[in-house]
Amino acid sequence: MNLDDFIKNTEPKKKKSIFDEHIKDIKKLLDLGYTQKQVIEYLQQKIKNKVGLSEQNLSNYLKKNKETNKKNIKTEIEKSQDIKKDSSEKKPLDMWANLKQKN
Fold first, then answer.
1. Per-residue pLDDT band at 91 (split at 50, 70, 90)
2. 53 lies in a domain?
3. Which of 21, 29, 41, 92 has a 20 to 30 A CA-CA distance from 7?
C-alpha cells in the first residue's frame, strides 16, 4: 500500500479533549467569575470519566483555544482589509472635485 492509498482509505484521528464537549459550560462559568478550580469541581461532578480533569489541563486547553481564536481573528481582519483595499483601488478619489467648476 502506498501513501496515496493510505490517505484515501484512512481518516486521521482527531485528538479530542474532554473539555471540548463542555466548552459552553466552561465559558459560562468563567464569564460569571468562577475560578478554574471551581470549574474543575463542577466538571468532576458532571463527568463520569474523570481522566484528565485538572486545573493545569484546563489552563492549557483555554490557552490553546485562545491562541487559535486570535489566529482566526487575525485572518478575518486581514481578509476584510484586503477587501477594503480592492474596493478602494477600483474607485479613485478626486480630491479637487469640489473645486472644479461645473458647466
1. low
2. yes
3. 21
